[in-house]
Write a structure and sequence with these properties.
The protein is mostly beta strands and 493 residues long. The chain contains nine helices and 34 strands. The protein is elongated.
Length: 493
Protein backbone atom coordinates (compact mmCIF):
# COMPACT_ATOMS: atom_id res chain seq x y z
CA UNK A 1 0.00 0.00 0.00
CA UNK A 2 1.28 3.44 -0.84
CA UNK A 3 1.58 5.81 2.12
CA UNK A 4 -0.83 8.72 2.40
CA UNK A 5 0.48 12.16 1.45
CA UNK A 6 0.66 14.42 4.47
CA UNK A 7 1.23 18.16 4.75
CA UNK A 8 4.78 19.24 5.65
CA UNK A 9 5.71 19.20 9.34
CA UNK A 10 2.91 16.91 10.41
CA UNK A 11 2.65 14.72 13.48
CA UNK A 12 1.36 11.40 12.25
CA UNK A 13 -0.61 8.64 13.84
CA UNK A 14 -1.00 6.13 11.02
CA UNK A 15 -2.52 2.66 11.03
CA UNK A 16 -1.62 0.03 8.44
CA UNK A 17 -4.94 -1.23 7.16
CA UNK A 18 -6.47 -3.55 4.58
CA UNK A 19 -8.12 -1.34 1.99
CA UNK A 20 -8.08 1.77 4.20
CA UNK A 21 -5.73 3.76 6.41
CA UNK A 22 -7.22 4.68 9.79
CA UNK A 23 -5.83 6.53 12.79
CA UNK A 24 -2.80 4.97 14.50
CA UNK A 25 0.82 5.82 15.26
CA UNK A 26 4.38 4.53 15.33
CA UNK A 27 7.57 4.47 17.41
CA UNK A 28 10.99 2.83 17.82
CA UNK A 29 14.06 2.29 20.07
CA UNK A 30 17.32 0.38 21.22
CA UNK A 31 18.97 -1.55 24.08
CA UNK A 32 21.40 -4.33 25.06
CA UNK A 33 25.01 -5.17 25.82
CA UNK A 34 28.12 -3.69 24.23
CA UNK A 35 30.39 -5.57 21.87
CA UNK A 36 33.89 -4.47 20.86
CA UNK A 37 34.32 -4.01 17.15
CA UNK A 38 37.65 -3.29 15.49
CA UNK A 39 37.90 -0.57 12.90
CA UNK A 40 37.55 -1.91 9.37
CA UNK A 41 39.53 -0.97 6.30
CA UNK A 42 36.61 1.11 5.12
CA UNK A 43 36.66 3.17 8.31
CA UNK A 44 40.46 3.44 8.64
CA UNK A 45 42.36 6.61 7.72
CA UNK A 46 43.75 6.79 4.19
CA UNK A 47 47.33 7.08 5.50
CA UNK A 48 48.88 5.47 8.58
CA UNK A 49 52.26 6.44 10.01
CA UNK A 50 54.87 3.80 10.72
CA UNK A 51 54.61 4.50 14.44
CA UNK A 52 50.83 4.32 14.59
CA UNK A 53 49.29 2.08 17.25
CA UNK A 54 46.51 -0.41 16.44
CA UNK A 55 43.05 1.18 16.19
CA UNK A 56 41.09 1.17 19.43
CA UNK A 57 38.06 -1.05 19.66
CA UNK A 58 34.75 0.66 19.01
CA UNK A 59 31.86 -0.21 21.34
CA UNK A 60 28.62 -1.05 19.56
CA UNK A 61 25.41 -2.13 21.29
CA UNK A 62 24.27 -5.73 21.25
CA UNK A 63 20.51 -6.00 21.62
CA UNK A 64 20.15 -9.77 21.27
CA UNK A 65 19.65 -10.41 24.98
CA UNK A 66 16.93 -7.82 25.31
CA UNK A 67 15.10 -9.09 22.24
CA UNK A 68 15.29 -12.72 23.39
CA UNK A 69 13.93 -11.85 26.84
CA UNK A 70 11.24 -9.40 25.81
CA UNK A 71 10.24 -10.31 22.27
CA UNK A 72 7.65 -12.91 23.40
CA UNK A 73 5.89 -10.24 25.52
CA UNK A 74 5.33 -7.93 22.54
CA UNK A 75 2.06 -8.63 20.72
CA UNK A 76 0.47 -7.85 17.39
CA UNK A 77 -2.93 -6.16 17.60
CA UNK A 78 -5.45 -6.27 14.78
CA UNK A 79 -8.69 -4.33 14.89
CA UNK A 80 -11.94 -4.44 12.96
CA UNK A 81 -14.08 -1.38 12.48
CA UNK A 82 -17.57 -1.39 11.01
CA UNK A 83 -17.69 1.66 8.76
CA UNK A 84 -21.14 2.93 7.86
CA UNK A 85 -21.65 3.29 4.11
CA UNK A 86 -24.49 4.08 1.75
CA UNK A 87 -25.41 2.42 -1.50
CA UNK A 88 -24.10 4.19 -4.57
CA UNK A 89 -24.62 4.02 -8.31
CA UNK A 90 -22.29 1.42 -9.89
CA UNK A 91 -19.31 2.98 -11.64
CA UNK A 92 -17.47 1.64 -14.68
CA UNK A 93 -13.99 3.15 -14.84
CA UNK A 94 -12.94 4.22 -18.32
CA UNK A 95 -16.44 3.98 -19.81
CA UNK A 96 -18.19 7.10 -21.01
CA UNK A 97 -21.70 7.41 -19.46
CA UNK A 98 -22.99 8.37 -22.92
CA UNK A 99 -21.77 5.05 -24.32
CA UNK A 100 -24.74 2.70 -25.06
CA UNK A 101 -22.93 -0.17 -23.32
CA UNK A 102 -22.78 1.91 -20.13
CA UNK A 103 -26.59 1.99 -20.02
CA UNK A 104 -26.68 -1.72 -20.92
CA UNK A 105 -24.47 -2.80 -18.00
CA UNK A 106 -26.43 -0.65 -15.58
CA UNK A 107 -29.40 -3.02 -16.04
CA UNK A 108 -27.57 -5.87 -14.31
CA UNK A 109 -27.35 -6.17 -10.52
CA UNK A 110 -23.97 -5.28 -9.01
CA UNK A 111 -23.20 -5.96 -5.34
CA UNK A 112 -22.78 -2.57 -3.68
CA UNK A 113 -21.96 -1.95 -0.01
CA UNK A 114 -24.89 -0.71 2.02
CA UNK A 115 -25.07 -0.30 5.77
CA UNK A 116 -21.74 -1.24 7.38
CA UNK A 117 -18.63 -2.86 5.97
CA UNK A 118 -15.66 -4.13 8.00
CA UNK A 119 -12.28 -2.43 7.74
CA UNK A 120 -9.09 -3.64 9.38
CA UNK A 121 -5.95 -2.18 10.89
CA UNK A 122 -2.83 -3.31 12.77
CA UNK A 123 -0.85 -2.05 15.75
CA UNK A 124 1.35 -3.27 18.57
CA UNK A 125 1.18 -3.76 22.33
CA UNK A 126 3.01 -5.42 25.22
CA UNK A 127 2.03 -7.66 28.13
CA UNK A 128 2.48 -6.16 31.61
CA UNK A 129 1.05 -8.96 33.77
CA UNK A 130 1.01 -12.78 33.40
CA UNK A 131 -2.80 -12.87 33.46
CA UNK A 132 -3.09 -11.02 30.14
CA UNK A 133 -3.11 -7.27 30.82
CA UNK A 134 -1.77 -5.42 27.76
CA UNK A 135 -0.80 -1.79 27.18
CA UNK A 136 -1.17 -0.11 23.79
CA UNK A 137 -2.20 3.23 22.27
CA UNK A 138 -5.77 4.45 22.48
CA UNK A 139 -5.77 5.34 18.79
CA UNK A 140 -4.81 1.77 17.88
CA UNK A 141 -8.15 0.40 19.10
CA UNK A 142 -10.30 3.52 18.62
CA UNK A 143 -13.83 2.73 17.39
CA UNK A 144 -12.95 -0.97 17.08
CA UNK A 145 -15.78 -3.48 17.06
CA UNK A 146 -13.33 -6.36 17.49
CA UNK A 147 -9.76 -6.50 18.83
CA UNK A 148 -7.55 -9.54 18.25
CA UNK A 149 -4.22 -10.09 20.00
CA UNK A 150 -1.66 -12.39 18.40
CA UNK A 151 1.29 -13.72 20.42
CA UNK A 152 4.69 -14.70 19.04
CA UNK A 153 3.78 -18.39 19.53
CA UNK A 154 0.94 -17.77 17.02
CA UNK A 155 -1.86 -18.07 19.56
CA UNK A 156 -4.67 -15.56 19.03
CA UNK A 157 -7.12 -14.13 21.57
CA UNK A 158 -10.13 -11.86 21.39
CA UNK A 159 -9.28 -8.94 23.67
CA UNK A 160 -11.54 -7.00 25.99
CA UNK A 161 -11.00 -3.25 26.09
CA UNK A 162 -10.62 -2.42 29.79
CA UNK A 163 -10.46 1.29 29.09
CA UNK A 164 -8.96 4.05 26.95
CA UNK A 165 -7.70 7.55 27.65
CA UNK A 166 -7.54 9.82 24.61
CA UNK A 167 -5.72 12.58 26.49
CA UNK A 168 -2.60 10.45 26.95
CA UNK A 169 -3.29 8.04 24.06
CA UNK A 170 -3.12 5.02 26.39
CA UNK A 171 -5.38 1.96 26.29
CA UNK A 172 -5.58 -1.18 28.42
CA UNK A 173 -6.61 -4.56 26.99
CA UNK A 174 -7.25 -7.91 28.69
CA UNK A 175 -7.03 -11.38 27.17
CA UNK A 176 -8.12 -14.63 28.80
CA UNK A 177 -4.74 -16.30 29.30
CA UNK A 178 -2.33 -17.17 32.11
CA UNK A 179 1.41 -17.51 32.74
CA UNK A 180 2.21 -15.16 29.88
CA UNK A 181 5.66 -13.60 29.36
CA UNK A 182 5.84 -9.99 30.56
CA UNK A 183 8.11 -6.98 30.14
CA UNK A 184 9.93 -5.23 32.98
CA UNK A 185 8.91 -1.62 33.51
CA UNK A 186 11.55 1.06 34.00
CA UNK A 187 11.60 4.86 34.23
CA UNK A 188 11.17 7.32 31.40
CA UNK A 189 12.06 10.18 33.73
CA UNK A 190 15.32 8.45 34.65
CA UNK A 191 16.42 8.10 31.03
CA UNK A 192 19.01 10.44 29.53
CA UNK A 193 19.31 12.18 26.19
CA UNK A 194 21.85 10.35 24.05
CA UNK A 195 21.36 6.89 25.54
CA UNK A 196 20.52 3.91 23.34
CA UNK A 197 16.95 2.65 23.13
CA UNK A 198 15.19 -0.11 21.24
CA UNK A 199 11.68 -0.69 19.90
CA UNK A 200 9.85 -3.89 19.08
CA UNK A 201 6.63 -3.79 17.11
CA UNK A 202 4.75 -4.69 13.94
CA UNK A 203 5.47 -2.04 11.30
CA UNK A 204 3.29 -2.70 8.25
CA UNK A 205 2.29 -5.99 9.91
CA UNK A 206 5.82 -7.46 10.15
CA UNK A 207 5.58 -9.02 13.62
CA UNK A 208 8.34 -8.55 16.22
CA UNK A 209 10.42 -6.18 14.14
CA UNK A 210 13.32 -4.65 16.10
CA UNK A 211 14.64 -1.12 15.50
CA UNK A 212 17.07 0.98 17.52
CA UNK A 213 18.44 4.48 18.03
CA UNK A 214 19.03 7.02 20.75
CA UNK A 215 16.95 9.37 22.86
CA UNK A 216 17.00 12.68 21.02
CA UNK A 217 15.17 14.82 23.60
CA UNK A 218 12.91 14.57 26.64
CA UNK A 219 9.78 16.31 27.89
CA UNK A 220 8.90 17.24 24.34
CA UNK A 221 5.61 19.11 24.02
CA UNK A 222 3.59 18.43 20.87
CA UNK A 223 0.67 20.32 19.34
CA UNK A 224 -2.69 19.37 20.90
CA UNK A 225 -0.90 16.99 23.30
CA UNK A 226 -0.64 19.23 26.36
CA UNK A 227 -0.54 16.51 29.00
CA UNK A 228 2.26 14.25 27.75
CA UNK A 229 5.98 15.08 28.10
CA UNK A 230 7.03 12.90 25.16
CA UNK A 231 10.36 11.09 24.82
CA UNK A 232 11.78 11.92 21.39
CA UNK A 233 14.00 9.38 19.62
CA UNK A 234 15.54 8.78 16.21
CA UNK A 235 14.44 5.14 16.17
CA UNK A 236 12.87 4.01 12.89
CA UNK A 237 9.12 3.74 13.42
CA UNK A 238 6.37 3.21 10.88
CA UNK A 239 2.64 2.49 10.69
CA UNK A 240 1.94 -0.57 12.85
CA UNK A 241 4.62 0.25 15.46
CA UNK A 242 2.12 2.26 17.52
CA UNK A 243 1.50 0.90 20.99
CA UNK A 244 4.75 -1.06 21.07
CA UNK A 245 7.35 -0.76 23.86
CA UNK A 246 10.48 1.39 23.99
CA UNK A 247 13.30 -0.34 25.91
CA UNK A 248 16.42 1.03 27.56
CA UNK A 249 19.76 -0.79 27.72
CA UNK A 250 18.66 -2.62 30.86
CA UNK A 251 15.80 -4.21 28.96
CA UNK A 252 13.20 -2.09 30.78
CA UNK A 253 10.24 -0.42 29.09
CA UNK A 254 10.53 3.35 29.42
CA UNK A 255 7.82 4.40 26.97
CA UNK A 256 5.04 3.50 24.55
CA UNK A 257 5.73 4.40 20.91
CA UNK A 258 2.97 6.73 19.84
CA UNK A 259 3.70 9.24 17.06
CA UNK A 260 6.07 10.26 14.30
CA UNK A 261 6.83 13.64 12.77
CA UNK A 262 6.72 13.29 9.02
CA UNK A 263 6.22 15.05 5.69
CA UNK A 264 5.12 11.83 4.01
CA UNK A 265 3.41 9.68 6.65
CA UNK A 266 6.48 7.42 6.96
CA UNK A 267 9.50 7.51 9.25
CA UNK A 268 11.75 10.55 8.83
CA UNK A 269 13.91 10.45 11.94
CA UNK A 270 11.55 11.88 14.57
CA UNK A 271 9.64 9.48 16.81
CA UNK A 272 7.80 10.11 20.08
CA UNK A 273 6.97 7.83 23.01
CA UNK A 274 4.70 8.26 26.04
CA UNK A 275 6.71 7.93 29.32
CA UNK A 276 5.88 4.63 30.97
CA UNK A 277 5.21 6.24 34.38
CA UNK A 278 2.32 8.20 32.91
CA UNK A 279 0.99 5.13 31.09
CA UNK A 280 1.06 3.04 34.30
CA UNK A 281 -0.87 5.69 36.25
CA UNK A 282 -3.49 5.74 33.51
CA UNK A 283 -3.61 1.92 33.48
CA UNK A 284 -4.15 1.74 37.23
CA UNK A 285 -7.02 4.23 37.14
CA UNK A 286 -8.67 2.56 34.17
CA UNK A 287 -8.48 -0.83 35.87
CA UNK A 288 -9.77 0.49 39.19
CA UNK A 289 -12.31 3.12 38.17
CA UNK A 290 -12.86 2.68 34.43
CA UNK A 291 -11.87 6.31 33.81
CA UNK A 292 -9.02 8.73 34.50
CA UNK A 293 -9.39 11.65 36.91
CA UNK A 294 -7.07 14.63 36.54
CA UNK A 295 -6.39 17.78 38.46
CA UNK A 296 -7.55 21.15 37.16
CA UNK A 297 -6.81 24.78 37.92
CA UNK A 298 -9.11 26.46 35.41
CA UNK A 299 -6.56 28.58 33.58
CA UNK A 300 -5.41 29.09 30.02
CA UNK A 301 -1.62 29.05 29.83
CA UNK A 302 1.00 29.75 27.19
CA UNK A 303 4.74 29.54 26.68
CA UNK A 304 7.04 32.35 27.84
CA UNK A 305 9.45 33.47 25.12
CA UNK A 306 12.25 36.03 25.45
CA UNK A 307 10.05 38.97 24.48
CA UNK A 308 7.38 38.09 27.02
CA UNK A 309 10.08 37.54 29.66
CA UNK A 310 11.41 41.04 28.93
CA UNK A 311 7.90 42.47 29.10
CA UNK A 312 7.24 40.96 32.52
CA UNK A 313 10.70 41.64 33.90
CA UNK A 314 11.84 38.04 34.08
CA UNK A 315 15.56 37.31 33.78
CA UNK A 316 14.97 34.17 31.72
CA UNK A 317 12.10 32.92 29.51
CA UNK A 318 10.65 30.25 31.79
CA UNK A 319 7.43 29.24 33.51
CA UNK A 320 3.83 29.12 32.35
CA UNK A 321 2.12 32.43 31.55
CA UNK A 322 -1.52 32.63 32.64
CA UNK A 323 -3.45 34.36 29.87
CA UNK A 324 -6.92 33.87 31.38
CA UNK A 325 -8.59 32.54 34.52
CA UNK A 326 -12.02 30.93 34.51
CA UNK A 327 -14.56 32.52 36.80
CA UNK A 328 -15.16 30.59 40.07
CA UNK A 329 -12.41 28.11 39.14
CA UNK A 330 -9.86 26.72 41.64
CA UNK A 331 -7.33 29.20 40.24
CA UNK A 332 -9.69 32.15 40.67
CA UNK A 333 -10.45 31.16 44.26
CA UNK A 334 -6.72 30.91 44.96
CA UNK A 335 -6.10 34.44 43.67
CA UNK A 336 -4.30 33.53 40.44
CA UNK A 337 -4.56 36.38 37.94
CA UNK A 338 -4.12 36.85 34.22
CA UNK A 339 -0.51 37.88 33.66
CA UNK A 340 0.90 35.72 36.46
CA UNK A 341 3.83 33.54 35.44
CA UNK A 342 3.85 30.22 37.31
CA UNK A 343 7.48 29.46 38.17
CA UNK A 344 7.02 26.52 40.58
CA UNK A 345 4.29 24.00 41.33
CA UNK A 346 4.63 22.20 44.68
CA UNK A 347 8.29 23.19 44.75
CA UNK A 348 9.07 21.84 41.27
CA UNK A 349 10.34 24.31 38.71
CA UNK A 350 8.18 24.99 35.66
CA UNK A 351 10.52 25.34 32.69
CA UNK A 352 7.79 25.39 30.06
CA UNK A 353 4.00 25.59 30.03
CA UNK A 354 3.62 21.87 29.34
CA UNK A 355 5.34 21.13 32.67
CA UNK A 356 2.52 22.84 34.55
CA UNK A 357 -0.18 21.13 32.49
CA UNK A 358 1.33 17.70 33.18
CA UNK A 359 1.91 18.28 36.90
CA UNK A 360 -1.56 19.68 37.54
CA UNK A 361 -3.18 16.86 35.58
CA UNK A 362 -1.25 14.38 37.71
CA UNK A 363 -2.79 15.75 40.93
CA UNK A 364 -5.75 14.07 42.58
CA UNK A 365 -8.83 16.32 42.53
CA UNK A 366 -9.36 17.87 45.95
CA UNK A 367 -5.70 17.82 46.92
CA UNK A 368 -3.76 20.93 47.99
CA UNK A 369 -0.93 22.52 46.01
CA UNK A 370 1.33 25.54 46.31
CA UNK A 371 2.25 27.76 43.37
CA UNK A 372 5.06 30.27 43.12
CA UNK A 373 4.09 32.97 40.65
CA UNK A 374 5.84 36.03 39.23
CA UNK A 375 3.64 39.11 39.54
CA UNK A 376 4.55 42.78 39.15
CA UNK A 377 8.28 42.16 39.36
CA UNK A 378 8.36 39.84 42.37
CA UNK A 379 7.44 36.30 43.40
CA UNK A 380 4.32 35.40 45.32
CA UNK A 381 3.21 32.13 46.92
CA UNK A 382 -0.39 30.96 46.44
CA UNK A 383 -2.21 27.93 47.83
CA UNK A 384 -4.82 26.21 45.67
CA UNK A 385 -7.22 23.30 46.03
CA UNK A 386 -7.02 21.37 42.79
CA UNK A 387 -10.30 20.71 41.01
CA UNK A 388 -11.25 17.94 38.60
CA UNK A 389 -10.29 18.57 35.01
CA UNK A 390 -12.78 18.49 32.20
CA UNK A 391 -10.74 20.12 29.48
CA UNK A 392 -7.52 22.04 30.15
CA UNK A 393 -6.93 24.69 27.51
CA UNK A 394 -3.41 25.56 26.42
CA UNK A 395 -3.02 28.76 24.44
CA UNK A 396 -0.47 28.86 21.66
CA UNK A 397 1.07 31.40 19.35
CA UNK A 398 2.02 30.79 15.77
CA UNK A 399 5.18 32.04 14.11
CA UNK A 400 3.70 35.42 13.25
CA UNK A 401 2.94 36.07 16.92
CA UNK A 402 6.64 36.00 17.71
CA UNK A 403 7.87 38.37 15.05
CA UNK A 404 9.15 41.85 15.98
CA UNK A 405 7.62 45.20 15.26
CA UNK A 406 6.66 48.63 16.72
CA UNK A 407 3.08 48.92 18.05
CA UNK A 408 0.64 50.35 15.45
CA UNK A 409 -3.12 49.78 15.59
CA UNK A 410 -6.32 51.70 14.91
CA UNK A 411 -8.71 51.00 17.79
CA UNK A 412 -12.09 52.05 19.15
CA UNK A 413 -13.91 51.41 22.44
CA UNK A 414 -16.18 48.40 22.65
CA UNK A 415 -19.90 48.90 22.33
CA UNK A 416 -22.09 47.81 25.28
CA UNK A 417 -23.14 44.73 23.31
CA UNK A 418 -19.51 43.87 22.52
CA UNK A 419 -18.57 44.31 26.19
CA UNK A 420 -21.29 41.87 27.13
CA UNK A 421 -20.02 39.31 24.59
CA UNK A 422 -16.39 39.72 25.61
CA UNK A 423 -17.13 39.86 29.32
CA UNK A 424 -14.58 42.65 29.83
CA UNK A 425 -13.66 46.18 28.85
CA UNK A 426 -11.12 46.82 26.13
CA UNK A 427 -10.44 48.19 22.67
CA UNK A 428 -11.62 46.78 19.36
CA UNK A 429 -8.87 46.57 16.71
CA UNK A 430 -10.19 48.01 13.43
CA UNK A 431 -6.99 47.96 11.37
CA UNK A 432 -3.35 46.94 11.75
CA UNK A 433 -0.14 47.97 10.00
CA UNK A 434 3.60 47.20 10.22
CA UNK A 435 4.28 46.94 13.97
CA UNK A 436 1.26 45.14 15.31
CA UNK A 437 0.77 43.17 12.10
CA UNK A 438 4.26 41.70 12.36
CA UNK A 439 3.53 40.79 15.97
CA UNK A 440 0.39 38.89 14.96
CA UNK A 441 -2.36 41.32 15.97
CA UNK A 442 -5.37 41.09 13.64
CA UNK A 443 -8.40 43.26 12.86
CA UNK A 444 -11.24 42.08 15.08
CA UNK A 445 -8.97 41.35 18.05
CA UNK A 446 -9.87 42.95 21.38
CA UNK A 447 -6.98 44.52 23.32
CA UNK A 448 -7.60 44.03 27.05
CA UNK A 449 -4.34 45.17 28.66
CA UNK A 450 -0.76 46.27 28.02
CA UNK A 451 1.90 44.95 30.39
CA UNK A 452 -0.86 44.05 32.84
CA UNK A 453 -2.51 47.51 32.75
CA UNK A 454 -6.16 47.39 31.62
CA UNK A 455 -6.98 49.75 28.74
CA UNK A 456 -10.34 51.27 27.79
CA UNK A 457 -9.40 54.13 25.47
CA UNK A 458 -6.94 54.97 22.73
CA UNK A 459 -5.42 57.61 25.01
CA UNK A 460 -4.72 55.03 27.72
CA UNK A 461 -3.18 52.75 25.12
CA UNK A 462 -0.85 55.49 23.83
CA UNK A 463 0.12 56.48 27.36
CA UNK A 464 1.06 52.96 28.46
CA UNK A 465 3.00 52.24 25.27
CA UNK A 466 4.85 55.57 25.53
CA UNK A 467 6.13 54.64 29.01
CA UNK A 468 7.03 51.07 28.06
CA UNK A 469 10.57 49.86 27.60
CA UNK A 470 11.89 47.78 24.73
CA UNK A 471 8.93 45.39 24.67
CA UNK A 472 5.29 45.22 25.65
CA UNK A 473 2.94 42.31 26.21
CA UNK A 474 -0.56 42.78 24.84
CA UNK A 475 -3.38 40.70 26.29
CA UNK A 476 -5.64 39.98 23.32
CA UNK A 477 -8.99 38.26 23.13
CA UNK A 478 -9.56 36.56 19.78
CA UNK A 479 -13.01 35.00 19.52
CA UNK A 480 -13.25 33.06 22.83
CA UNK A 481 -9.54 32.66 23.54
CA UNK A 482 -7.23 35.03 25.40
CA UNK A 483 -3.52 35.15 24.66
CA UNK A 484 -0.52 37.36 25.40
CA UNK A 485 1.25 38.67 22.31
CA UNK A 486 4.72 40.21 22.72
CA UNK A 487 5.66 43.27 20.65
CA UNK A 488 9.26 44.42 20.34
CA UNK A 489 9.32 48.22 20.46
CA UNK A 490 13.06 48.50 19.92
CA UNK A 491 12.77 47.88 16.18
CA UNK A 492 11.46 50.50 13.81
CA UNK A 493 9.33 50.07 10.68
Amino acid sequence: MKPNTFKPNTLVRSLIAAGVITALGAGAFTAGHWLPQKATAASAPATISANATPAASILVPDFTGIVERNGPAVVNISVTQNIKTAAAMPQFPGMDPSDPFFQFFRQFPWPMPNGRIPQHGLGSGFIVSPDGVILTNAHVIADASEVTVKLTDKREFQAKVVGTDKQTDVAVLKIDAHDLPTVKLGSGAGSKVGEWVLAIGSPYGFDNTVTSGIISAKSRSLPDEGYVPFIQTDVAVNPGNSGGPLFNMNGEVIGINSQIYSHTGGYQGLSFAIPIEMAVKVKDQLQQFGKVSRGRLGVTIQEVNQQLADSFGLKNPQGALVSSVEESSPAAKAGIKSGDVVLKFNGKEISRSSDLAAQVADMKPGSKATLEVWRNGSTKSLDVTVGEMKDLKVASTDKSDQEHGRLGVAVRPLTPEERKQVGAKGLFVESVDGPAARAGIQPGDVLLSVNGTPIQSAEELRGVVAKAGKAVALLVQREKAKIFVPVDLSKQG
